[in-house]
Each structure stands twice: as structure tokens, then as C-alpha cells.
Amino acid sequence: MSPTRSEAPALPGYEHRRWLGGGGFADVFLYHQNYPSREVAVKVLRTSAGNRDHADRFAAEADLMARVSTHPYIVTIYTAGIASDGRPFLVMEYYPNGNYGEVARSGGLRISDALRAGVQIASAVETAHRAHILHGDIKPANVLISSYRSPGLTDFGGGFSVAYAAPEIIQGKEASERSDVYSLAITIYVLLVGRTPFHLPGHNSERELYSRVLNMVPPPTGRSDAPPSLEHLLRQSFNKDPEARPPSAEAVGRALQDAERELQLSPTPFELRVDDPLILERRAEDEEGTRAAAPRTVAGAFGPSTAEMAPGAGGYTTDRLPSYPQWSVEGRTQDDPARRAPVPSGRPGAGPGADAAGEAELEPDHTLRRAAVVPDSVPAVVEGRRRRPLLVAAVAAVVALAVCGGVVAVLLAARPGPSAGPMTSTVATTVVPLVPAPAAPTNVTVSVRGSVAHVAWQSPGAMAGDRYRVAEVSGGQSGAFVQVAGRSATVRGVKAGTIVCFEVATVRAEQISSPSAPGCGR
């Protein structure tokens, strides 16, 4: 059902065109700006500035977005003000091609498109985090699509959507960068699959989604073109424990770039400010080792010239920072409270790219107002990151000598001596078998006697070691699951005299299937 629309306000210098969409607190209209002449999206609060709660949230969103909206993949804020009828408004860049929620609804994107969009969105999220801003509601419907088919992240500081929110968020705990990392990974999953891992046909009540987010291990994408490293990234990002997830949106973006390389695709640039402190620090370190060198002279058509590399005062760079094969936390102080600055509560409204049917959602929009894995092998946070050029050079020299020595040794060993026999080479290899993803159980049957339910099912493609999770989903209420090794389970404590329903999922190693269709009995 379309949300109730408010009237478009009269704004000097702007001509109203049409309504674009709306949310809980605001409407978005298309206007034509007279000078300079362009189409803009104007987000208007439904209540006047006299409603301090809504007005404060609206102003907070404007301030947050304005701090980072020059990023190429964050919606640009042009100006803000108060209309003649007392309602606050934001004038924003207009994105005419809808949002990724609409695109993903028809099915997953091509793997190359999904990876490219994932890297671009991750760079936008990382930029916000470095400005001490948490987004709080990353999802495909909040990523708009520009005229150039590039993403634009919007709706900062809003509420949260249950199917995209990290478990700690829906439990009312403090948000963090890793909460956004979780939502970012869910968004990437949707771009690949076309739905969240927690949505099932016909069984997506708010209570069911809550239970699945808290208890269900999301299944892999199941795409044959998804490299194992991508599935591994998503699996770690979905961890229920925030500390077990990748430490930053940048780590996610770099891992997506590595997946692109695995598929022999050109890595998508990861956009960060050229005056970002981390980039400037690394540039200074590079310059420190070459400060004594003379300027590089380049002979051109107009004679010799001196080429100098000078850091710019603004803008963005596509320079690739070092890749992080393990989750690196270099230069990022995880205990800095400023990096965990809470976002304002509430949901100001729709993004500027919503269509006439309202804020298009892939599934029912369970958006609520906010009440408020790094592996063991990851190195500890590095407090001082200054390189020592002499030490680096020494290490490089030792490595070079070792490599050369190894090559010489191989060549000498390969020379046939007077009594040398045929040369043989033995290479130790470790073969890691690929475990197929488990299939969802079928034909779930339920028989009830008193307060005891007996649940049985079939398991196509079962393998040795498979286990099964059985969860009650009666009346839209999803209870705690039990896990068993066989293909039947006895569940005690069900409500006698009522229809009870159960769904079953297959657990295989670190993978879990989609839940079965529910089976019911009385």
C-alpha cells in the first residue's frame, strides 16, 4: 500500500514536477531547479519544524550526509532550508534509475555487476566510517542508481530493517562499524541472489525474520560463478559475533576486488579521499625513503621538464592501497569511541530515487526506529606504522639472496653427475575436497500427542555427518531450534490442542541450507 502523500511545498527558484516516494516521516518530490537548470530531488518532512523530535532527526540526517556527500557513491546534498509552510527540506542530487532493491527483485545481478557495485558501496561506507558516521540501514533500497548506472548511498542515520540488521542491533545493543559491515554483506548477497538469506516465500512475518536473524546461519549464494573466496567473505561477514566479522568496510571492498581478480576481471577502484589521513601517511612513508633522490626529469616535446608528485587538496583517488589477504587492522584503532559514534534514531523517510509506488522494497519493509570475524590469525592492531626504510631494504635483500640461492641450488642439483640417475621431482600437494551445499529437507510431517510433537522429514542428497535444525514456526512465531543427527525429532512443550508447525534445515560443515517448507500437525 502506498504511503499517504503530503503536499509539495512552494519553493522559490524551484518548480514542482511530481511525487517520487515517501517513508514514515518525509516525502520526496522531483523539482526543476531554475538556476542552475537541473532536476533535483527534494526531501520534505511531513511535519513542521515545530515538531522538535522529527525536525532534529531530519537536521541530523542533513548534517551527516553533507559531511560525506562529495563522495562519488554517496548522494550529494545541495542545500537545505525551511519551506514557507514551516516544513524542513533537503535538496539532493536526483537519481532517475530507481534503486538496487528494484533491480534485485527480478533476480541476482551478473557476478561482475554485483562485485563492482559491492566495491563502490563499500568505499562509500568506509568513507562515512572514517568521518565517524555509521549508516545504520544499509540495504539495496537505500542505494540509488544514477544516470551513469553508478550507486548512490542515501538515508543516513535512519532506522533499521530487520532482514538487513545485525543480530546485536535487533537485540537493542550498541551499533558499530561491524554492524554496518554485516548489513553491507547482506546487501551484496541480495545483489547476487535477489533476496535476503532470511526471506522465504510466504513466511516472512516480522517475528519470523527476527528469529532467523538471531538463529539461522545464512546459506551460501549457490551461484556456480561465485568464487569460493566470495562465499568465504560473506560467511564471515554474517557471523553473529561482531568481533568475528571483517573489521571494516574497506576490508570487505578489498576482498571483493580479490574476487574480481580471481574471475580475471579488472578490479573496481576503491574510492577514498586523496587527503585521507591513511593515504597521506602512506605517501609520506614512501617519500621518506626517496627524499634524497633528485627530481625525475622527463624529456617531452617541449624539452626537459620536472615531474613532481604533489598531494592534492581534495577530491578522490583510485590509487589501490595494499590488498589485505587476511583481515588487516593496520592503522585503525578499534577502541576509538569516536569511530562508534551512534547514529540518530528514527527514519526520516524515503531516498530520492523511490518510484511512484513508494519506497520500493525487495520484501516487506520491516523498518524500525533504532532504540538507541576477525580470524585468530589476524595480527594485533599496529600502534605505530612508520616503516624503517633500511630495515625494509635489508629484509628485501635477504629475501632476494634466498631466492637466488634457491635457484642456484636447483640448477646445480639438476646437473647430471657421472653416476646421476634419472631426475625425479616430488611435489607435496594437499587436496581439499569440495563439500556440496546442503539441500533443504522436504516432506516435513508433524504428529502431535498432548504437548509432544514428533517431526519427520526427507533429506535429498544427504551426506554422512549431516545434522538438522528443527524450529517451531507456529502462528508466525519462531521458537528456539533443536539440532539432531537423524531425520526425525521429538519436540516437547508444544501448545496442546493447537496447530503446530515446524521447519527443518540441513547443517553440513559450516553450511546450512534454506529452511524447508513448514510442516504442520495438531
Task: Produce a short descriptive summary.
This protein is α+β, with helices and mostly antiparallel strands. The protein has helices at 52-68, 100-105, 111-130, 167-170, 177-193, 206-215, 228-237, 249-262, 277-288, 389-414; strands at 14-22, 26-33, 38-45, 77-82, 88-93, 143-145, 151-153, 160-161, 272-273, 296-300, 303-307, 316-317, 367-368, 442-449, 452-458, 467-472, 481-484, 488-492, 500-508, 511-512, 519-521. The two termini are 35 Å apart.
Describe this structure in words.
This protein has 522 residues and is of the alpha+beta class. It folds into 3 domains: 14-93, Phosphorylase Kinase, domain 1 (2-Layer Sandwich), CATH 3.30.200.20; 100-276 and 317-368, Transferase(Phosphotransferase) domain 1 (Transferase(Phosphotransferase), domain 1), CATH 1.10.510.10; 442-521, Immunoglobulins (Immunoglobulin-like, Sandwich), CATH 2.60.40. Helices cover 26% and strands 20% of the residues. It is built from 10 helices and 21 strands. The protein has a 5-stranded antiparallel β-sheet with strand order 1-2-3-5-4, with helices on one face. A hairpin with a 2-residue loop joins strand 10 and strand 11. The two termini are 35 Å apart. Mean pLDDT is 73; it is low at 290-367 and 369-433.
